[in-house]
Amino acid sequence: MSFDAVDVIRTKRDKGELSDGQIDWVIDAYTKGAVADEQMSSLAMAILLNGMNRREIARWTAAMIASGERMDFAKLSRPTADKHSTGGVGDKITLPLAPLVAACGVAVPQLSGRGLGHTGGTLDKLESIPGWRAALSNDEMMRQLEDVGAVICAAGDGLAPADKKLYALRDVTGTVEAIPLIASSIMSKKIAEGTGALVLDVKVGTGAFMKDLADARELAETMVALGTDAGVKTVALLTEMSVPLGLTAGNALEVRESVEVLAGGGPADVIELTVALATEMLAAAGVTDIDPATKLQDGTAMDAWRRMIAAQGGDPDAELPVAPEQHVVKATATGVLSTLDALAVGVAAWRLGAGRARKEDPVSPVAGVELHAKPGDQVAEGQPLLTLHADDATRFDRALESLANAIEISDSYTPTPLVIDRITA
Ligand code: URA
């Protein structure tokens, strides 16, 4: 049966359901270049405005998986589990989490991306470690999973190429914010990656993709259903992202904090979320008799980190780079720090050089924001609240502009839970 791009666009424009045949055809034809960018962007906009039902989303996801290779870890001697975060400010959790879960006997095949906009990318963070390389062949990845139990590397071009092309198009056509397209984009990559179990960290709040709890819940439920239907044991946590995670946002700054967590210290919220996600990953992979918190205390997670970094050419003992320029932001009043807005801190870190505006831009390993207090802390006028780090002091003014309304000091603070809810199939 033959299809026509304009008919497919009209179907969705007129609020109809796309047939399985239409979806398979349009994804395949777009990947091969037979459907033009302007036609696909029109279809993406129709989907953003009119949605897709569960069958359409599942078929769309399957068609994107079928556009490329599918990895298979069945030959590994241990079960696999992965985590995906929808992205937040200071979200370095993958760094301590992957070696921690490996230290508990479950292999973590984490294919990561680089950051775009105000949320950092895991690969950018790890590249601040001297010698570390993100690109691994499939054979190298498999060997490292068997020997070390954890890999964090760049997704190869063979994985869901339809998504790669479509995501870049959505980025420049105002069509990123469509829940069916976000869910199918994330899940096509994770299902093609071949993990046996998947834990989704869906962030909610000012610093997150999803600012609103209802949207975050819908995204989480859609992704959990897609994973479950594809035979991947999938669970989601909805977690708070109105305040940066931990005390750092920036590449080398976040690696340093992650190493503190692996050494048994570090900020309470980073430890809490790392342990909560590790517990979910282990349970989803069938391991329920190990408390991951003990592996942070007894040094075994740190051993796995050191082996994971060294296996990819990194020197776990190397000094991390430090910014030549620093600027301290002080408290303007005495009281309780009641707001420290995640989006503003993320934008400040980005303007300092930690993130990129276009995907081909370089990032600074040393730039970012260090927090000296978190909401709920008592602060005194004149006390340092933040230190801005940059290669170049001319970056400070624009970063300070983004922080202009980010900080509030008052006489009370109502804490909110870090883990808001848990979504299962
Ligand atoms: N991350 C993805 O991989 N895809 C999206 O569509 C949005 C976020």
Structural write-up:
The chain is α/β, with parallel strands linked by helices. It folds into 3 domains: 5-51, Transferase, Pyrimidine Nucleoside Phosphorylase, Chain C (Transferase, Pyrimidine Nucleoside Phosphorylase, Chain A, domain 3, Up-down Bundle); 82-157 and 170-311, Pyrimidine Nucleoside Phosphorylase, Chain A, domain 2 (3-Layer(aba) Sandwich), CATH 3.40.1030.10; 325-410, Aldehyde Oxidoreductase, domain 3 (Alpha-Beta Complex), CATH 3.90.1170.30. It is 43% helix and 16% strand. It has helices spanning 5-13, 20-32, 37-50, 54-66, 94-103, 122-126, 138-147, 161-171, 179-193, 213-229, 251-262, 268-284, 292-297, 300-311, 342-352, 396-402, and strands at residues 81-85, 108-112, 150-154, 197-204, 233-240, 248-250, 325-330, 335-340, 368-371, 378-379, 384-390, 407-410, 419-423. Strands 1-4-5-13 form a 4-stranded mixed beta sheet, with helices on both faces. Helix 10 (213-229) links the parallel strand 4 and strand 5 (233-240). The mean pLDDT is 96. Uracil is lined by residues 167, 176, 181-182, 185-186.
- Compressed to H and E, one letter per element, the order equals HHHHEHEHHEHHEHEEHHHHEEHEEEHEE
Overall tally of structural domains: 3
Structural class of the helices, strands and pairings? alpha/beta
Biggest pleated sheet? 4 strands, mixed
Total helices: the number is 16
Name of the CATH class of the largest domain: Alpha Beta
Number of strands: 13
CATH topology of the largest domain: Pyrimidine Nucleoside Phosphorylase, Chain A, domain 2
- Morphology: globular
Please indicate the percent range of residues in DSSP E strands (runs of 2 or more).
15-25%
Just name the CATH architecture of the largest domain.
Answer: 3-Layer(aba) Sandwich
End-to-end Cα distance, whole Å, is 35 Å
- Poorly predicted residue ranges: none
Q: What percent of residues adopt helix (DSSP H or I)?
A: 40-55%
